[in-house]
Amino acid sequence: MADVKFELITRRLQEVLGGDIIKAILAEGRTPKCYWGTAPTGRPHIGYFVPLTKIADFLRADVEVTVLLADVHAFLDNLKAPLELVAHRTQYYKKLLLAVFTSLGIPTSKLRFVEGSSYQLSREYSLDNYKLCTLVTEHDAKKAGAEVVKQVESPLLSGLLYPGMQALDEQYLGCDFQFGGVDQRKIFTFAELYLPRLGYAKRAHLMNPMVPGLGGGKMSSSDPNSKIDFLDPPEVVRRKIKNAFCEEGNTAENGVLAFVKAVLIPVSELRIERQQGKTGADAEEGASAIGDQTPFALEGAPDGTVFSVFRKEEYGGSLHYKSFDELEADFAAKKLHPKDLKTAVADGIIRLLDPIRAAFEQDEEWKKTEKLAYPDPNAKPEKKKKVYHPPPPGKGKNAKLADGAAGPAAPEGQAAPSAHAPDATSTTGAPEESNPAAS
């Protein structure tokens, strides 16, 4: 049983550090505890499906999962999210993650959501952070955050604090292993080195592969052309996939092909296993799922198909694959054309996003939060309406004279005398009485 759980916990990962720690916990019959964190900065993109889908495996293996909304980290990372926006973005991320988990059939009741500021501002945490600062060199701190913290010509001190705080989170969240992308590796090895120097236990670290951007390179929230937003409508999804780099026969740096491998096929396998009752310790998986929960296989596809590509009969008919290796081989041999692959991938992504967009449209609070978290930079500021304020007594054109009588009426065709200019003369040249109320 322990071996089965370990296989579930570690399958489809790119790298595992400290696997023996997890094996020892499982051998003792204890429940492993994990944390996965995300800093609420830019809009989350569909690359998040990779770690979120993997969390289903953790729950199947009876792992206790904590989701950290790292709001303090978001602020520290070279002001990617200004302090006044962090709170709104934190709530946006939570709303979105809950919707994605539900769309994947992952029971959110088994997940613990924690905001970093709820403990990272405490006296104990701050003191440990200071202790860490006495041990860590500037070189080590900068090196650890090189692939995660935004690199600028004149880096801020805040970016150097980022890796140390992520290491301390393992202790304060009480986890046995931290899970994240392979881009976190340097921070993970940093934590393995420095936590024991504070007298804390060394944790294991599990890393999922990163999904390349649509144009090659890393999929990034800061580059709208490299990624697809969770709330992108179908026409935008199709346009972005149509423009994605996907050269015929080229399987390297191919974001479209990589997304099939990292997201669509794992989700298909997850759904097939659920249909077969293979959910391990997570009997609630799929019970509250929203949206289409069938695999990405066309109707009539052979049993075990995890991904289908529709083609007209005149072009050889549809293609059905039971593994990514089969699909990749056909693409490399140019048996699968990029246009057909792109169409199938766009269809799959739209199916994944439909229930998430529907949840957003039905949640007025979420829509308000989205506008506060990501205000339109091109929006024109609202013009303030002028409010009429009546003049104080004795002022203005209708002011009364000191004795309470109205000022003398001007002869027809002439301007009325001013009550605010005691030295002025009337149009007839006669001296005008002064108005004490205006002096």
From TrEMBL:
Region (Disordered): 370-439
EC number(s) reported in the record: 6.1.1.1
InterPro entries reported in the protein's UniProt record: aa-tRNA-synth_Ic, Rossmann-like_a/b/a_fold, Tyr-tRNA-ligase, Tyr-tRNA-ligase_arc/euk-type, Tyr-tRNA_synthase
Lineage top rank: taxon: Eukaryota
Listed CDD domains: TyrRS_core (cd00805)
Subcellular location per the Swiss-Prot or TrEMBL entry: Cytoplasm
Root EC class: ligase
SUPFAM superfamilies linked: Nucleotidylyl transferase (SSF52374)
Keyword ATP-binding set for record: yes
A biological process term (GO) from this entry: tyrosyl-tRNA aminoacylation
Low complexity bias: start-end ranges: 399-421
A single MF term (Gene Ontology): ATP binding
Record carries keyword Nucleotide-binding: yes
One of the record's GO cellular component terms: cytoplasm
UniProt keywords, alphabetically: Aminoacyl-tRNA synthetase, ATP-binding, Cytoplasm, Ligase, Nucleotide-binding, Protein biosynthesis
Family: Belongs to the class-I aminoacyl-tRNA synthetase family.
PANTHER family: TYROSINE--TRNA LIGASE, CYTOPLASMIC (PTHR46264:SF4), TYROSINE-TRNA LIGASE (PTHR46264)
Name of the protein in its database record: Tyrosine--tRNA ligase
Source organism phylogeny: Eukaryota, Fungi, Dikarya, Basidiomycota, Agaricomycotina
